[in-house]
Amino acid sequence: MGDSALRVLPESTAGLRIVLSGHVQGVGFRPFVYRLATQHGLRGSVRNQLGQVEILVSGTSYALREFELDLVRNAPPLAKPRVDMSQAIDAFQADGFEIASSSAAADARIFVPPDYFMCDECREELHDPADRRFRYPFINCTQCGPRYTLIEALPYDRPNTSMADFPLCPECKSEYVSADDRRFHAEPVACPSCGPQLSFVDGRRDTTVAGDSALSAALARLRSGAVVAVKGIGGYHLMCDACDVAAVTLLRQRKFRPDKPLAVMFPLAGDDGLEVVRQYAEPDTAEAELLTSPARPIVLTSKTPRCDLADNIAAGLSEIGAFLPYSPLHQLLLEGFGGPLVATSANISGEPVLTNNDDVESRLGNVADAFLHHDRPIVRPADDPVFRRIASSTRPLRIGRGCAPLELELPWTLPAPVLAAGGHMKGTVALAWDDRVVVSPHIGEMDSPRSLKVFEQVARDLQALYGVTAQTLVRDAHTGYTTHRWAGAQGLPVEDVWHHQAHASAVVAEADLPGQWLVFAWDGVGLGEDGTLWGGEALAGAPGAWRRVASFRPFRLPGGERAGREPWRSAAALHWTSERPWGDCPDNDGLAEGAWQRRLNCPETTAAGRLFDAAAALIGRFHFASFEAQGPMYLESLARGPGKVVGLPLARDATGIWRSDWEPLLDVVNDDMRSQRARAEAFHTSMARALVGQALEIRAEATVNQVGLCGGVFQNRVLTEQVVSLLEDEGFDVFLPSALPVNDAALSFGQVAEVAARQGKG
């Protein structure tokens, strides 16, 4: 072999222009690209283009190939990059590699990052006496810390955040501009010298403490049995000793929250962080993974048999809402306290969580004994997300801090941007354009001026942050909803979507499976197309073309909306409709029955949620509720598994709709010779069997095998797991949402999906 065959030829040089989108904002992606390019010996630049990252790079062909592969396979843990374009360009000369200034050019692939938990590296520094951020409550880096709640505008750079008023000290500035540092372009970066500070106000003693002493003062008040309002990332928590019955009672009395379960934050300890949690609760593998995930949500998990938490944390229920500290301030607070703390949203019941220092003192001055503030402004609220394991998966009951804004894709393309206003309860906003949908964090119940104010802010902010202006508004068809009236007053074209069609379209759009569907939408009440209050419906078809095919025997609700908080009214309605006596009826003066007989304020309903209310009233004598779904939650806690089946007659009405008759259930739920548990189990199983019976009849006459479940009733694990199992045994393909809640929080997404299916194209 000659010398020419052995000679190594220099590899050719080339250039690439790579454009990426996805989760590439606020996750340390540009610093990662810088280090990666330097590692591969490449020249060029990386620039943020409002949601897309543009990379111009030049080097050897081999290095370029490896660099492009590493961009995705070795991306930072919080990043989810997607390569939109990889285009060959001419090789070019450059002095190394740089992070270029962000471009403010409009772009539709913007990603607004949620707020992240404190990473392990920052936690180590927090506890290192030799570190200059030792015990600093606002430590963060490119892989952790607040994002959504401090971004005022995009591109995501420090001047566009609520950290703009905290100039970097020389040491932080050095970290911020050093490509080899973990805090390279970490926008919220700060330290005790230049960053936010704590302050403590003791409202009962009229004292104020600032700086390092504020945390100690807050801990002292918590140990004394006081209620302390603590400012976090997305808002304030009301906190107290979770093992002190008197402290929990005090909180409940002052907040007028006598029964609703309270979330508990546990100290992080042990190899997986759950050592303390397991002293009080028994998370399974999936729950444990979720508890320690970056979102750090509240997870409903079973209590241990000898749980030593105050028994009024979640009285009468077998689960507690547990979560771990997700900010350095929470970490220091829980460590200093040495045990679990109640951490419930600091708000007026139903409203968005409070975020402003002055507001929380003025509005909750009669609730909290003291206030642990900080001076980093919260731009917009983000309440804690809540998850529960249902049918083998952990599913959201509420989306919020850490997992929202939530981005989803539509199976259809919208011709123009829309903003969906959602419903009245569990409010969210959805902004959609092309095939993209962004769902806001939980806002709250839309029946107060502050809820509307925050709703309007979130609607404006989503459009401003994503650079998208809605041309059409979508709303629930119920004219009494605040969001319905708001949409009508904005001067934009409006589309109405029926409540349960939005539920059905949400579940189908998330599944993104073609074909015909049968969707069961079971909830409290929502306005139906015939003017009655639906809530136990089966809809067949597909988004944009739903038809009602099954429901329950209707009954009239005495007192209308009052029935939601007075379950006895639903129980009375079933008895009066069936012409049966009910000796325990609280209607002692007969006024409610008299009004019912005269059809005064007694709207007709088919709501499954009201049937559960009635069963709770009859089995547990649960006549009044202090919060939504209290009766059904209590009823579920009684049941442990399948029970005796009570067959519910199923027949077609004059309009062709299949109707299940609930009346045979009255014999069982009123039977005091059976235990409460046996009656609760029989009720759940009979309702599950009734649903499957409807599905079989509908499949027999129409080719439909895909079944979706939606509506708040399917937050009930005992019911839902039986429904899923029975349907699958019959050969149905069953889908239960996992990205969005099954409850009304999904209505905004469903409204978008319904309109997209009507207007758009696949």
Descriptive notes:
The protein has 762 residues and is an alpha/beta fold. The protein is 30% helix and 21% strand. It has 22 helices and 31 strands. The strands form five sheets. It has an eleven-stranded mixed beta sheet, sandwiched between helices. Strands 28-29-25-24-23-30-31 form a seven-stranded mixed beta sheet, with helices on both faces. Helix 20 (676-701) runs parallel beside helix 21. Mean pLDDT is 94; it is low at 1-10.
Shape summary: globular
Radius of gyration: 28 Å
So how many helices?
A: 22
The average pLDDT score comes to 94
Helix content: 25-40%
Distance between the termini: 61 Å
Quaternary arrangement of the chains shown? single chain
Low-confidence stretches: 1-10
Structural class: alpha/beta
Approximate strand percentage: 15-25%
* Major sheet characteristics: 11 strands, mixed
What is the secondary structure topology, with strand pairs?
Layout: H1 3-6, E1 13-23, H2 29-39, E2 43-49, E3 52-60, H3 61-73, E4 80-89, E5 97-99, H4 120-126, H5 170-177, E6 198-202, E7 207-210, H6 212-223, E8 228-231, E9 236-241, H7 245-255, E10 264-265, H8 277-280, H9 285-291, E11 298-302, E12 319-323, H10 328-337, E13 341-345, H11 357-363, E14 370-374, E15 386-390, E16 393-398, E17 406-409, E18 418-420, E19 430-433, E20 436-439, H12 449-466, E21 472-476, H13 482-488, E22 494-497, H14 499-511, E23 517-527, E24 533-542, E25 545-552, E26 555-556, H15 568-578, H16 591-597, E27 604-605, H17 608-619, H18 630-638, E28 650-652, E29 658-660, H19 665-669, H20 676-701, E30 706-710, H21 717-729, E31 733-735, H22 747-759
